[in-house]
Amino acid sequence: MDLFKDKPLVFQPGEKSSYSNPNYILLAFLVEKISGMTFGKFIEKNIFEPLGMSNTVLNTGNNNLIMNRADGYEVVGFHELENTEYANPSIAVGASSIYTTPTDLNKWMNGLLSGKVLNSESLESMFKKHVASWGYGWVLSEYLGSRMYTLGGWSNHGFVSDLTHIPDLNMTIVMLSNIEIITIKEEMESNIISIVLGKGFTPFNYEVKPIDLELAEKLVGTYKFGEDFYNPGGTMTLVEKDGYLYEYQGMTDRLVGMLRADDLEFIHRSSWGRVKFRKDDNGKITGLQIYGYFEAEKVK
Q: What does the DSSP assignment read for 202-243?
């Protein structure tokens, strides 16, 4: 709390939408103050136990044994995995730190929609678009004509989670992974929906093979993102090694493979983000785009 309690608002409530871990930490703090219980005890008594979520716990970093807990992994190179670095979960209570299973998350969704957690007025407000495509915690969208409510877990220290409900199909999709490949869940999810709707899907093809050294020389370098990037002004450094293209992650001294999809299109293995390079009329690489909307200029 001390890290952010004196900071000004980024914008006035209701003006914009933006995900914020500190906001959820603040909510957990308020729950404790109002209820007189720890956040873990409160959600255990009021959510986990009533909904029968017997395999769901809040890990507060107190070293309690969590049976059958999975280890988290991060990707390295093109095929390898590494144990993720340990992070004490107590710093993000309210924003993360819950261990659960797909079966229990389905119980949570069924309990929420059947009015066992919120009254009808609060539930309606929760799923209503308030700013842009955001409800209260949910991203509201459509896919192949069907409404979708997505509670994106993004990624965290070797794990990825995603929960989507499609009311038109009365279907809930729960995706949990202990390999941190951030956006691959979105591609898998859209394929699952297509299959359920009888539309099938086309497998995405990519190659793990050396690229032309002349092309590699054009692609390597440092690319700088704008202020709209999730890490404003952040950079991506690409290097070539033994004829393969990698992102060099300096903080961990790790090389992450760039899977070849087309001449100037690659897949960043740890995020599964599509990286498309831009070139000018002279064939010089001037920048790249990732995830379909974040632009970066080549600066070095």
A: PPPP-B-S---HHHHHHH-EEEEE-TTSSSTT-EEEEEEETT
